[in-house]
Structure prediction request, 309 residues.
Amino acid sequence: MKAVMVSNFGGPETLLWKETEIPQPKPHEVLIKVKAAAINPVDWKVREGMLKDLMQLPFVLGCDVAGIVQEVGSGVDNFKEGDEVFAMLDLTKGGGYAEFVTTEAEFVALKPKRLNFEEAASVPLASLTAWQAMFDEAQLKAKQKVLIHAASGGVGSFAVQIAKAHDLYVAATTSTKNIKLIKSLGADLVIDYSQEDFTTLCQNYDMVLDPLGGEVQSRSLKCLKKGGTLVTIVNLTCQEAAKKVGVTALHTLVRPDGDRLAQIANLIDAGKIKPLIAQILTSSEIQAAHQLSQSGRAQGKIVIKMQLN
Prediction:
């Protein structure tokens, strides 16, 4: 098979398709023929060597895949050959930029029926990040209030929809050009960060979801009520300041979870969540896909459609 084998840390030019062996599933794994894989910021951060402790050279990048089950290990009884599935792979193993990948069956779920493979591949990591931040870390309940930053991004766009599906009040920050889009996702209050101050518009919130960090993270503490929670998916720099004002600041790292993905698939098939796709590129455009992701200008997710000879 062909896979993007990264042998040296560096720029997009290190992403080269190479021949390698098709992996064989262990007893509790499935072998997936990858039809599409999504690009995530963690991918280019690993590629550049910013997260050297996460993966060891050489490696195959990619944590989001959708495809068809080719083979199941001896201990797997909930999937069979031919099943259309999607999965978030182990962050420390990757493997998604390839024609085939093996992964633990517990990380896999049946693909939402209303999505094609490219759409389905865009879902796992971003949607799980949003879900786990809001409900595992902050333990939000119906009717509570959440402020979601960068709402047009991969995590933010799923967070808005998942929050509304759980009957939360949602405020969301975005740029002027994306206001209409974020309103269409169901946000109750959409804030144009270039024109409005979210700290004056959002008070006594139960949670802030922060994919940005920096000044946005520290200013967001003003939006929380006593006992509220800020959850960030980037560097946590405001922990001491949070303690001083009686709130909690946490960093979260997404975890694969097939059961949760199955719940997300049900919400998608019920029409309550839809993926936001920035661009679908071919496998020959893998370097361009990384450049687009790294630019920070993508509205939603970037997906690679596997089209290899």
In short: The domain at 126-251 is CATH 3.40.50.720 (Rossmann fold).
